[in-house]
Amino acid sequence: MNKPEIDWEKLAAIVEKHKGKKWGLIPLLQEVQENFGYIPPESVEHIAEAMHMFPSQVQGVINFYAGFSLEPKGKFVIRVCRGTACHVRGSRSIIRLMKKELNVDEGETTPDYRFTLETAACLGACALAPTMMVNKTYFGKLSPPKVTTTLSEFSKTKTEEKV
Amino acid sequence: METIALTMDGKKISCPSGISILEAADQHGIKIPHLCYHPDLKPFGACRMCLVEEEKTGRLMAACVTPVAPDMVIQTESPRVVTHRRNIARLMIAEHPESCIVCSKGNRCRLRQVAAQLGVGETNLYHLPNFKPLEQANPFIIRDLSKCILCGKCIRADHELVVVGAIDYNLRGFHSRPATVHELGLERSNCTFCGTCVSMCPTGALSTKNSSYVGSPDRESNTICGFCGVGCTLAVGSSNERVTEVNPAHLSESVNGATLCVRGHFAHDFLNSDNRLISPLIRKDADQNEEQWAPVAWEKALDLVAQRLMEIKSENGPQSIAFLGSSKCTNEENYLFQKIARVVIGTNNVDNGGYTSGQFLFNVFDVKTDGGCRINPLSDMEKAEAIFVLGADPNHSVPVISYYLKKAALQGTPIVVVDPRKTELVKVASFWLRPKLQTDLELINALAALLHEKQSYDPVYIDNYTEGFSLFRYSLSSLDLDRACGVTGIDRQCLAEIVDLINGKKIAFVVGHGILQQKYGMHTLGAIFNVSLLTGSLAADGGGIYVLARENNQIGAMDMGTVPHLLPGRQALNDDRVRKQWEKNWNVKLSPDPGLNMVRMIEAAEQGNLKAMYIMGENPLRCLPQPERVQKALAKLDFLVVQDILNSETAQMADVVLAAAAFSEKHGSFTNLEGRIQSFHPAVVPPGNAKSDWEILDLLIAKMNQTKGYETLEKIRMEIRKLVPAYAQLDGQRQGWITQISQKAVFNNQTADGLITFYPLVTTEAHSVDSDYPFSAIVGSLRYHLGSGTRTNASERIQGFDLCGQIEISPEDGAKLEMVDGDSVKVISPFGAVQRTITLKKEISPGEVFVPIAVNSNDAMNLIELTDLADPNSPGWKTVRVKLEKV
After folding, report:
1. Is A41 on the interface with B (CB under 8 A)?
2. Start-to-end C-alpha separation, chain A
3. pLDDT per residue over A94-118, tens digit each?
4. Which has fewest Cβ within 10 Å: B100, B552, B822, B867?
């Protein structure tokens, strides 16, 4: 799988929807992020023009928030919690295993754009520690076997997105 | 404004409400250290160095962002405040590289100063410098963001003062730094290299790039920029009598405040160019000696000039000599120069380089308003309710004016841009009209007719201050709007929207060389003038007409009479009463016939009618079209004197070269495009034996008249003040203004009662298209060069930027001609050709080509025919028909 193609028409439609609205930049960026998995750097100038801002300002906002990315992410974004509760219950080994299984480092994406591995300071589900999220779904009480099965689940689903 | 009382450091003080604690402290002489505060920028509160304590509440607050409140009790230096400030300084230094000894900011580093004030030496913190790669790919600015303290001054200056938006904060926390879009180098961003950020940077994070180490300047002196007609105040730093650094002087009521442009900030290294003339030179016969030029003493050079000019005058008559003065030299120098021509030699053959910028067209306004609209302060522009920008690309030609325009746009003033190209200003404009080339006149006439049709004019103003409206409105009502829309290619609906937009508003006009240098320039100015009258804008608050001047003293040179048709004070030579007066002033007989203008001089030389020329501070070989023709013509002269600062193309043809001092090396005054007269003093001494132009001219007058000269500048100024009422304020003070002497009631309600007439409505014939030359080339300037680029090309930094002057064409034409970015193309006109690479730009209309001037020895001038439009006496050199050939 190559870097995902961008549907420029769809992007233009999103930009058009928020064009010129006051405080419209963040909702716009969220929608782009949601739809494309990232904010294509080529679109920064276009977005800036629509919002009557400087491109450098738009980039500043994108790079400020962890929720926005200028690089394409995998279809499944895995966020492993490394909060205190998860840490004492072994999140470190979960992260280590993830890295080995996916053969990527933290913040990286697999070459087939299937997985992105990230860590989070706290996912707010300490009772289920150690936890992780795959896109918007929580997985709690992780153990190495559970991680392996979950990953293979997601590796299998070739066509439709389960979560 | 309400005044409030508070206590600061135990002192009772009162200050206006709404200001910050920092400003209040400043007004009362209490110094609070700060790093991110700048009076021209919105307060930001980034550095926290200005923390003060409110005694009542015990709160610590940043003085720059906290407004004063009644009955506050502020401590600016309590032990608690000082402890916090120290800690902040310690943290900043812990993150800062330990490179103070080799840092170019040296003792001017604000961080170092603040740390020294607070007594912070060793931080006793773990030193954790945040190293970033050094960026110095461009020849102007070195960015060493390791030294950045995140005060945000550069970003705010970029956003608020010059409104370019090249940089903003990027990333978060420890990683946060100012960055361009996509984090590219500045040269690949939309940075204009105005250098405003460099001057503001408190540390060495941003510094000026020099080819060798220069260190901190020994001293700093203020002067006026010698490039464009804006007249920015400069703080020139110098060491060992060499200019090493230029910053905005940031004086009160200056045009530029804390800003400059790339030329003003970085191109002044031309002053130290190896190509500077350092001694008078006399051409020797080539066979006598290998060396063609011999440096001689001033006495000898001036004797030769005086003797030869007098000989030629007595042999061939005064009309065989022509004087080309300079729109770059001072008022005093131009006055002396034309006086030598008119009084000592007795000819009106005197002109200046402002000719190429269409200075003759100013006549329209001068005649109509009795000289009234020569004073247009730029500070008035913020009062304008709408702004029209016609045929001007101020982002490139006069960048500081573009800052005014963009700031006005940010504040919500609608801007209407009329230009065939999508200039950078279009981004902030409410409307962009793209008339077909040379049809601006029709467009503005149509606008006037629609204003009339929709009754969107100001009847009270018209009634009070103008006459002949009934006749003018008749011609407006008979104007064929459909035809005008057809000719210009502008939709009638769009014009109607603009009329609605400007209804009842006072309009400022910014007129550039796109109008001044075009064929119908004079009528177009007349049409603009009419709209200004119809809307009641002329002379009203915010109703300025800003005609862009390319050169620093273009206005002054004209005011001083260095033009063929006007005497000093822009008084008409052909007016008998005026001429009689000047004959009395100077005690000579003056000819009523206007002399030769710049182009006619070359033609006369070509025909052998001109025997001698005296050229001061101009380089016709580079700035005029068809340089080969110019060269042949100058070669025919019996005697050519060139007085210049650089060994220019023209100087190399001269018989005698007189080495002159540049603006930074002499006393004098320039008049800017607002009508502001600014006097200045030298920052350094002239190189070698060079002398100020006025001294040279004065010595020459003394020699030719065999009398004593003026000897001091003040004596020249005194004569000007006495004889030219408009220059009553030329008294050597830092700044004065042209005095309003118009007898039109609109400028002077109290004593004058003259009424203004409308400019007649002129329409033009449709011009036929020559199919052999299917494209129209527009020649225009880039921000890195001024005019023909004689001086800017002598700047090492500008040279280092390696501009190749890419030809711009539309993507449509690119596809048609099967050309892509970077292809080599030959642009051919009936008069010559240039070869360059092309770039496809959607800012260009199909059928049009943009050719930047001043690069490659200004070869763009090859394309244009060296002619003068007979009516008006002005160049129509903005556009030329061309064809394109792929190479």
Report:
1. yes
2. 20
3. 999 999 999 999 989 999 889 999 9
4. B822
Quick one: B761 exposed, middle or buried, by C-beta within 10 A (0-12, 13-18, 19+)? buried
Chain A residue closest in CA terms to B172: A64
Tokens standing for B527? 């049409």
Q: Is the C-alpha dihedral spanning B579, B580, B584, B589 positive or negative?
A: positive
B179 touching chain A per CB within 8 A: yes
How much is the pLDDT for A163?
46
Give contacts of A55 with chain B, Cβ < 8 Å: 165, 181
Residues B293 and B249 in one domain: no
Is the CB of residue A57 less than 8 Å away from at least one CB of chain B? yes
- The answer to whether residues B349 and B322 touch, using CB atoms and an 8 Å cutoff, is yes
* pLDDT tens figures, B83-130: 999 999 999 999 999 888 888 888 899 999 999 999 998 889 999 998
- Establish if B742 belongs to a structural domain: no
Asked if B613 contacts B324 with a C-beta cutoff of 8 angstroms, the reply is yes
Nearest chain B Cα to A70, which residue? Answer: B182
β-pair type (A132-134, A137-139): antiparallel
Q: Which region, left, alpha or beta, applies to residue B807 given φ > 0 means left and ψ of -120 to 50 means alpha?
A: beta
Whether residue A162 has pLDDT greater than 50: no
Per-chain mean pLDDT for chain A: 89
Q: Are residues B686 and B786 in the same domain?
A: no
**pLDDT of B407-463, one tens digit each?**
999 999 999 999 999 999 999 999 999 999 999 999 999 999 999 999 999 999 999
Same domain for B292 and B250:
no
Phi, psi of B672 (to 5 degrees): -90, -175
* Look-up of token digits 């200003």: B425
Residue B822 sits in the same domain as residue B804: yes
Considering its fold, how many domains does chain B have in total? 5
User: Domain segments of chain A: what residues?
Assistant: 8-64, 76-156
CB contact under 8 Å between B168 and A44, yes or no, is: no
Task: With CA atoms as reference, report the closest residue to B356 among B561, B512, B513, B525.
Answer: B513
A67 touches chain B (CB under 8 A): no
C-alpha A21/C-alpha A10 separation (Å) is 19
Query: How many Cβ contacts (< 8 angstroms) between chains A and B?
Result: 40
Does some domain include residue B368? Answer: no
pLDDT at A1 over 80: no
B131 touches A at CB < 8 Å: no
Is the dihedral angle over the CA atoms B364, B763, B512, B822 positive or is it negative? Answer: negative
**Chain B residues whose beta carbon lies within 8 Å of the beta carbon of residue A45:** 181
> Phi then psi for A149, rounded to 5 degrees?
-65, -40
- Which CATH number is associated with domain A8-64? 1.10.10
**CA proximity to B261, closest of B199, B192, B214:** B192
Q: Do B170 and A59 touch (CB under 8 A)?
A: yes
- Pick B165's closest partner by Cβ from A41, A54, A63: A54
Query: Domain spanning A76-156: which CATH class is it, in words?
Result: alpha beta
On whether both B539 and B561 belong to a single domain, the answer is no
**Closest of B881, B861, B320, B814 to residue B627, by C-alpha:** B861
Residue A102 has which token pair? Answer: 């996916």
Residues 6 or more apart whose Cβ sits within 8 Å of residue B695? none
- Same domain assignment for residues B148 and B217: yes
Q: Are A54 and A65 in contact (CB under 8 A)?
A: no
Kindly determine whether residue B182 and residue A44, on different chains, have CB atoms separated by under 8 Å: yes
Of B688, B709, B737, at which residue does a domain stop?
Answer: B737
| Residue ranges of chain B with per-residue pLDDT less than 70 | 285-291
Predicted TM-score (pTM) of this structure: 0.94
Q: Which domain holds residue B178?
A: 129-272
Task: Give domain status of residue B753, yes or no.
Answer: no
For residues B318 and B265, state if they share a domain: no
- For the beta carbon of residue B101, count every other beta carbon within 10 angstroms: 6
